[in-house]
Structures are given as structure tokens and as C-alpha cells.
């Protein structure tokens, strides 16, 4: 049994946006996509024109940005710090922020300002995934697989090699 989407109003959009922001940090572009999906579902069901709600979304986002409720710079800085702790590479972080709609210059600035680097992130990734020096057995037999895992995670070969062939600090 499919749920009937609510009819779009200014109050509904605002409540939906605030409810989303209570649960998740978001960039302006990401919140726009979330609200547009709600509008699309509702418009398809009720036979409305989805384009007529674009100005409502625009005004809502402008108001949230002016009040500081949404700030792409703060969002990018927090996301970079979080992703570095998880062991994500610079490439992976930049790609994730691009998917969330953060501008490249904001992403680059947030990455430059953060103190972490790819070597530290690669070590954190290897530790979390138990690669290289964090393996308990068969370290030399699985060296190529460990290098491949770090490569797929976005780390350069030299960094991956130094981490896999290195020792635990």
C-alpha cells in the first residue's frame, strides 16, 4: 500500500526542510534536491506543476543561508574532518562533497585548511580495514590485495606502498 504524498504548501516545505536538517547536516544544493524530490512526488500524485514550487524552495534556502542554518563552508569543513578521521583520501572526500553539491573552491579551501594528509588517512584506513601492518597473518601473500584496496579508496600508489610495507607506529 503506497503512501499518498502530502500536498505541497509553504508550511509543509518548511517543516520538511527543518525536519531534514534536524537529522542531517546538509549543503544548500543537497537540501534543494531533497525538497525537489518531495515536490516531484507530490506533483505527480496531485497533478500539479512541479515548477511552480521552485520559487518557494529558493526563498526558503535563501532565508536559511542568511540565518546561518545552512552554510556550505561549515558543512565542508566538518565533512572533511569527519572523513579524514575515517581514513578517506583527498580524492574521495572531494568526490563526496561534489555529490552533495558543494562548490569546488569551497571543497579545496576546506581540504587545504584541514591539518590531516593522505598518509595519515591511509594509515587510518589500513587500520580500520586491517590491511598491511595491521594484518595478523599472511601479510606478504596479501600485499597486492592491500595495495589494490588502498588504490580503490583513492590513495596514490606511493602512499599505498609506504603504508602497506610500513610498520605500525
From TrEMBL:
Chain segments annotated as transmembrane: none
InterPro entries listed in its UniProt record: RecX_HTH_2nd, Regulatory_RecX, WH-like_DNA-bd_sf
Record's keyword terms, sorted: Cytoplasm
Pfam families cross-referenced by the UniProt entry: RecX_HTH2 (PF02631)
Biological process annotations from GO: regulation of DNA repair
A GO-annotated cellular component: cytoplasm
Domain (RecX second three-helical) ranges: 71-111
Protein localization: Cytoplasm
Role this protein plays: Modulates RecA activity.
Family: Belongs to the RecX family.
Name of the protein described by the UniProt record: Regulatory protein RecX
Organism: Roseiterribacter gracilis
Gene, per the UniProt record: recX
Amino acid at each position: 500500500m503506497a503512501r499518498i504524498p502530502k500536498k505541497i504548501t509553504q508550511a509543509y516545505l518548511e517543516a520538511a526542510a527543518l525536519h531534514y536538517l534536524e537529522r542531517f547536516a546538509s549543503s544548500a544544493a543537497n537540501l534543494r534536491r531533497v525538497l525537489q524530490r518531495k515536490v516531484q512526488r507530490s506533483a505527480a500524485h496531485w497533478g500539479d506543476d512541479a515548477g511552480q514550487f521552485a520559487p518557494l524552495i529558493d526563498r526558503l534556502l535563501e532565508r536559511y543561508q542568511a540565518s546561518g542554518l545552512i552554510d556550505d563552508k561549515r558543512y565542508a569543513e566538518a565533512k572533511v574532518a569527519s572523513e579524514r578521521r575515517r581514513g578517506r583520501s583527498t580524492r574521495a572526500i572531494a568526490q563526496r562533497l561534489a555529490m552533495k553539491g558543494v562548490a569546488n573552491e569551497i571543497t579545496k579551501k576546506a581540504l587545504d585548511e584541514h591539518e590531516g594528509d593522505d598518509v595519515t588517512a591511509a594509515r587510518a584506513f589500513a587500520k580500520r580495514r586491517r590491511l598491511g601492518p595491521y594484518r595478523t597473518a599472511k601479510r606478504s601473500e596479501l600485499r597486492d590485495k592491500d595495495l589494490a584496496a588502498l588504490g580503490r579508496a583513492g590513495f596514490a600508489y606511493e602512499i599505498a606502498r609506504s603504508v602497506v610495507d610500513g610498520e605500525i607506529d
